[in-house]
Amino acid sequence: MTDSLLAAGVKAFLVVFGLLTAFAYMTLVERRLLARFQVRLGPNRVGPLGLFQPLADAIKSIFKEDLVVSKADRLVFLLAPIISITFALVGFGLIPFGPKHAFFGWDPWVINLDVGILYLFAVSEMAVYGIFLAGWASNSKYSLLGSLRSSAALISYELSLGMSLLAPALLVGSLNLQDIVAWQENNGWLILPLFPAFALFFISSMAEAARTPFDLPEAEQELVGGYNTEYSSIKWALFQMAEYVHLITASALIPTIFLGGWRMPGFLPDIPFLWMFLKMALFLFVFIWIRATWFRLRYDQLMRFGWGRLLPAALIWFLLSALVVAAGASISVLNWFSLASVLVLLAVLLSGPARQKTAKGGAA
Amino acid sequence: MSIAALAQSLGITLKALFTRPVTIPYPDAPVALKPRFHGRHVLTRHPGGLEKCIGCSLCAAACPAYAIYVEAAENDPANPTSAGERYAKVYEINMLRCIFCGLCEEACPTGAVVMGYEFEMADYRYSDFVYGKEDLLVEVQGTKPQRRESTYTGREVKPGYAVPYARVELEGVNPPKARVERAAPKPWRDNPVDDDHHEGGHS
Amino acid sequence: MSFWEVVSAVLLLATALGVVRAQNAVHAALSLIANFLVVAAVYAGLEARFVAMTQVIVYAGAIVVLFLFVIMLLSAARSEAGPDPLPGLQPLALLGGVSLAAVLVYAVSRFQAPANPASLQGGLPQALGPLLYQPERWMYAVLLVGFLLLVATVAAMLLVEPERIAPPLSGKRPQDQQEGARP
Question: Which CATH architecture has domain B24-162?
Answer without folding.
Answer: 2-Layer Sandwich (3.30)
